[in-house]
Write the structure tokens for this entry.
Amino acid sequence: DAGVIQSPRHEVTEMGQEVTLRCKPISGHDYLFWYRQTMMRGLELLIYFNNNVPIDDSGMPEDRFSAKMPNASFSTLKIQPSEPRDSAVYFCASSLVWLNTEAFFGQGTRLTVV
Amino acid sequence: ELKVEQNPLFLSMQEGKNYTIYCNYSTTSDRLYWYRQDPGKSLESLFVLLSNGAVKQEGRLMASLDTKARLSTLHITAAVHDLSATYFCAVEGNNDMRFGAGTRLTVKP
């Protein structure tokens, strides 16, 4: 398996634009996580899915953020409208089960909102 | 709310020396993970600790977990330059996975 695949790797957009980040988890993994990493706040869990169903989205910062998982092999994180403070590295991770196993992280998407 | 604290946040050490990174957490949990992140890269899983007293070793790194003290340690033995990276601990809560702030390790020749 190629691991967790994220796209794009880098995204630069203007404030107010819609941004969509994409993730393909490892095949067979039941859990998918979206994290945001910034210098100020470190790694934050935004939302996670189990079998394509959102379980906990309490980490999503605002209504401008939304995430979907239409099938087991694809998830999106959308920011609309984007703001400069959304600039961060966004990681997608997947794991086989919630407990007792580590999560495998994608390479991340570095988002810059200008 | 689960809180995870790592210390030190920055660590500069000489090659060949030993040191320990500490990870404290605030609520009961017996599942703790250590990850490594190289600059500009993703996170790579190092250790999975699933019970009190668990000890795992890989090369020059050894991790342990004391759930009663809510403490995990990552011990570095005879450091080499290749170990330079940021190390994160992560603790599993009820519906959450909290990461520490990370320890940026620099190993100097």
